[in-house]
Amino acid sequence: MDKPFTVTLTGTLRQVMTVFLLGTVFSVMCCPEPVQAQGKGSRPRVGVVLSGGGARGAAHVGVLRVLEELRIPVDCIAGTSMGAIVGGLYAMGMPVDELERMTTQVDWNEIFTDDIPRSSEVYRRKSDRNYYLSSIDFDLEHGVRLPMGIITGKRIDLFLRSLALNAPDDFDTFPIPFRAVASDIVTGQQVVLSKGDLARSLMASMAIPGAIAPVEIDGRLLVDGGVTQNLPIDVVREMGADVVIAVNIGTPLSREENLTSFLSVLDQTTNILTNRNVFAQVYGSTAEGVVIEPVLGDITTASFERMHDAVRAGERAAMDRADELERYAVEGAVYDRHRQDRMSRARPVPRIEFVKMEQRSFFGSDALLRLIGIRAQGVMQKQILARDIFQIYKRDDLEDIDFEVIEQDGKNGLLIKARERGRTRHTVDLGIELSSDLDNDNSYRLLLKYTMSGLNALGGEWKNEIHLGQNERYFTEFYQPLSPYAWRLFVAPYAEYRDNVIDLYERYDAGNPFATYDIQRTTLGMDIGIQMAEYGEFRFGYAWGRSKSALDTGFQALPEEENDEGAYRLMFVFDQLDSPFFPRDGMRFSSAYHYSRKNLGADDDFETLECAFTGAVSHERHALTLRARGDTNFDTARGISRGFYLGGLFNLSGLNTDQLYGNHVAYGGIIYSYRILDLFPLLGKGLYAGVSLESGNAWSVRDDVDAADIVTAGSFFIALDSRLGPAYIGYGLAERGVSAAYFSLGAIRF
């Protein structure tokens, strides 16, 4: 009788019963070379099965390395999710060392997002994301379309495509025949993928339901194979395997004391369902073989930074079963011939000698290629290729992009296929801003932006914003580029209405305000400018309007006003921060100059200048942010509507929001933060703890500006950077014993 096919399943089952096999040889009549039936006396055909499990799947690489060291030939492979990625790339000929580099050195947190690095994003879209947190696309024909996943997965798709450039369409012609397992989200059936686009098949096998949008293949909507079959032993049996070496890296069931939240209960539910289909595969199989379960401890499906540890765990687990595995080993010379034959059938990575663009877009090929800096000649750097092409995809005027290797006149080339959006795009962006000092200073704003883009061949767009709450804003702008290039001229007529509520406090009294003013401003204007690709924007324009300030409650400290306004304005922004909320690298500088004159339509002559700077550096989990700000009206303006404000969390912490008022403001601050917890990329970035040290003040008259008046303040805080936006809980303390606690959801304006 053959040695049992043993398996240890996680969770409440400490050890699984052994299943004895009858020892009969399984025959497959229709399996293609090289896993067709062999004659009597030949070695058994070995099939490897790799389960899904996210970052834990790096353990598969360690197991494959040990199988090679033990000289165990692999005749076919089937995999699910991360097991499909590792198995598919290995089957098409990727060496184990390269597989390990791929799994351990790639930034998976970046790949599992639809975002390009913020520093590389076109400035206009970058500025939108400073305050708006989510987007919904719709069209007039189909109405509102909620996304089928938190991310589309396009970045993952391009990454996999760059790795599978040399993969044949028939998975049976791989050096090792291969199958990827996915699930039909419509019927709930298991789907075994044996041909077609390898990258797309791998993408389908790992499309986590709800997190990554389903992948359509042959008219079926496919999601992660773990939904139906996380350890597809039956698939390699159908491929002709006599012996099955299965690697299960599924997450163990949690103990009762660890089920402490609804998230842990949801996670446990998923693991129960997955472990159940694994259990059914193991006990339902009559195959001879071994199930290997690496001990991965606290390495979770999202622990991408620990994939190196997972590789080592896979090696240890396989070596622990070496006595059983060696039954399927062959002599050195036999294994060498097997390996040489396998590698001889692997297609080499193509040498790219030209790059072509095939697009249905008003952009010329040269213009699109310049956006990413693709250059021909030589073997492509795969990850760089995927990253650069993704940069094109993130342009708002393109709906999709793909690439493939083509042959022309005996030369290999890269064909990039870009498809422009076929109709006007309608987008709704949503945001929220809540802030409270947990005492008497509370405010909220709901943010809504509606944009119609792709209105003409040059990418004209109409943007409309509504901010509801304590400070209302209504804004509309028609933005018309004058060229198709990344650096391009534009014109932008606009109209704006603001209704702001301003509280006035005794200078260092954090109690109730002694007066509240309502300031209304209506503005019509026209700007011309230059969009400097991802770097920023320059604008020059004329604005005319009316402003009115009126006492709402309390004592009248300043006169009520009603003014006509007419001015030239000059604005410049350079923005290369990697995040508007929790920056770790880069800098941002902005300035705005307002030149108002009677002959331009204003009631009086005055000027204002506003400048702000933010810079950030980081090391591992530590980050340091420097901030500075200076505003002045040169003592040329008077009135509550033309002054500047300072106060609030990170803006002289300890004071109420906008507690200090004056015609001149100076501020400097430094914020230290430490990332204490990483979030799964689909949920956000992480949880932070930090402290800040700040100084500044506001003065009414320039002659009163004195360094001796500088107010020193600081804070300590806990902050969350999530897909729903930033959230802060902090406590601030300023000079003279002024202090405040803070809770904030949404962007903190600086």
Characterise this structure.
- The protein has 750 residues and is α+β, with helices and mostly antiparallel strands.
- It is built from 14 helices and 33 strands.
- It has three domains: 46-113 and 155-344, Cytosolic phospholipase A2 catalytic domain (3-Layer(aba) Sandwich), CATH 3.40.1090; 354-420, membrane protein fhac (Ubiquitin-like (UB roll)), CATH 3.10.20.310; 499-521 and 530-745, membrane protein fhac: a member of the omp85/tpsb transporter family (Porin).
- It has a 16-stranded antiparallel beta barrel with strand order 16-17-18-19-20-21-22-23-24-25-26-29-30-31-32-33. Strands 1, 2, 6, 7, 9, 10, 11 and 12 form an eight-stranded mixed β-sheet that branches.
- It is elongated, with a radius of gyration of 31 Å.
- The model is unreliable at 1-41 and 375-379 (pLDDT under 50).
Annotation keywords:
Porin, Ubiquitin-like (UB roll), 14 helices, 33 strands, Cytosolic phospholipase A2 catalytic domain, alpha+beta, eight-stranded mixed sheet, 750 residues, 3 domains
Instruction: Specify the number of helices.
Output: 14
Percent strand:
35-45%
Can you say what the CATH homologous superfamily of the largest domain is? Cytosolic phospholipase A2 catalytic domain
Evaluate the radius of gyration. Answer: 31 Å
Short structural summary:
With 750 residues, the protein is of the alpha+beta class. The chain has 14 helices and 33 strands.
Helix-strand blueprint:
Blueprint (H helix, E strand, L loop, with lengths): L45 E5 L8 H11 L6 E5 L1 H10 L4 H10 L2 H4 L11 H6 L5 E6 L3 E3 L3 E3 L2 H10 L14 E7 L5 E4 L4 H8 L4 E3 L2 E3 L2 E5 L8 H6 L4 E5 L14 H23 L3 E5 L14 H14 L1 H4 L6 H13 L9 E7 L4 H8 L9 H12 L4 E11 L2 E10 L4 E12 L5 E12 L7 E9 L2 E10 L5 E18 L10 E18 L3 E19 L6 E15 L10 E11 L9 E14 L2 E11 L11 E3 L13 E3 L1 E15 L5 E16 L11 E12 L2 E10 L4 E7 L5
Parallel strand pairs: 1-2, 1-11, 2-6, 5-8, 11-12, 13-15
Antiparallel strand pairs: 3-4, 3-16, 6-7, 6-10, 9-10, 14-15, 16-17, 16-33, 17-18, 18-19, 19-20, 20-21, 21-22, 22-23, 23-24, 24-25, 25-26, 26-29, 27-28, 29-30, 30-31, 31-32, 32-33
